[in-house]
Predict the structure.
Amino acid sequence: MTDRTLTPEPDTRPPHPAPDATPDLSSHNPDWWRQAVVYQVYPRSFADADGDGLGDLRGVTRRLTHLAALGVDALWLSPFYPSELADGGYDVADPRGVDPRLGTLDDFDALVAEAHRLGLKVIVDIVPNHSSHQHVWFQEALRAGPGSPARDRYVFRDGKGERGELPPTDWQSVFGGSAWQRVPDGQWYLHLFAAEQPDLNWGHPDVRADVRTTLRFWSDRGVDGFRVDVAHALAKDLDEPLRDLGSPELSGEAGLVHFAPGTHPFYDRDEVHEIYRDWRKILDAYSPPRTAVAEAWVPGARRALYARPDELGQAFNFEYLQAGWDARELRQVITESLETAHTAGAPATWVLSNHDVVRHASRLMLPPGTDDNAWLLSGGHAPSVDRDAGLRRARAATLLMLALPGSAYLYQGEELGLPEVADLPTEVLQDPIWEQTGHVRKGRDGCRVPLPWTTTGPSYGFGAAGAWLPQPPSFAAYAAEAQDGVEGSTLELYRTALRIRRKLIDGETLTWAEDTPEGVLRFDRGDGWSCVSNLSTEPVPLPAGEVLLTSAPLENGRLGPDTTAWIGH
């Protein structure tokens, strides 16, 4: 039998803020999330406590001192629910349970208690658009057959053609191919993602009631907020006859521009906002109110609707993530993002990496117009990426992001400067995108490789044995152990930046400086400091003031290329 008893590793660095044995969370600022730094934990790749090669909740608890010492305000847990991992855990068989491979509800409660003791808030993913095909409801629907009430909780339809052999519509899955899957009795069910993720019917009262129960279940266990997966897809036009789109491209979020706002058959429909107004009543019933942030891949003006105070309150800003390393483009995106958030009465959000995209230490070095998937298929060789240059740029981008008003979302491992593992052999890939697209798209495994904690060991401290995805030997140099206390390391840069940020951040506005050289971004914060980012190829002079922090050493007192500085006035 595996011994699951844990002895937390000693950490001589004092957590921030200092832990309180019995914190009274209800007395904390209910608006903590407006300027927070949130750290995303992908549990299966964070830390493995039981040595089975898969990260787990006890592993997360064991490493919470790392997050406290880093200086973040909250951790966001990607799904840890029972799942067959058809989509990395986003195929949820029981939204109020814990996957036995990752632990138990007692383990979850212990994680939340320890996080709160260390002054960290806890946010969990909620996946309301679809369930796993292993969910008891879907299994009941399959047994019940066509026309049964059980099938009404999902989107079942008869097919087209003489014998119903064709899908009901031409809607396409995000992961490739038809969004419809046929079952043995001849009907088809809708899945906007993997076939193992049947879409729920949000017109059904059982669906709405069950998610209300889920929100209360985790809130009652001390969860401080929710990240809402695919927030823009819950409401669908399911009136008969279902509408064909006429083109596969219109099934993606990019197709929204071809429809009047709020009228796409299954994305960003106006009716979705009534759902979130209902949720807000539940979230506000707690003290302090539970927070929420929408993953809504919609244009900025529409995204603001999800972030309204009577709905989720915040929405991810993907325009910033998708922006290139270009001063003019970034300035425009930042300006528009702040304006969009302001219209909703919400704080802006900023993110550079997450579990779905190429890590920014690699992505920001790709030439403009480079197709990320083509680069991954080449194993990261076409074009090749200079890792040192990529890390320099990533550090500069991070200081720029952390200086912006609003909330910043960090992805596990970016504080170590981890690059994308682009050369994973195809035989080890786990992301369903690889198979579902017929080996056309490599998928997202390269950003999900388990973290290196130590410079040695079968999985560099991730666990006592190997890891579920292979780590490259280069990970040893990025390990937390190799960077802890090392002046100038990326880990120490993050720690210093977050400590200073906590002291500096106050208001939610900025003022652009207009007298900057080409390729340079500078903005002043009303709370008495400035951020300068040099995206040009030549060193530039710094404005007057005290240099608080730089992402790379100054060059004869000047700010070098791909470098950001914070200046106090």
Summary: The CA atoms of residues 430 and 445 lie 7 Å apart. DSSP finds 16 helices and 15 strands in the chain. Confidence is low (pLDDT under 50) at residues 1-27. The longest helix spans residues 327-344.
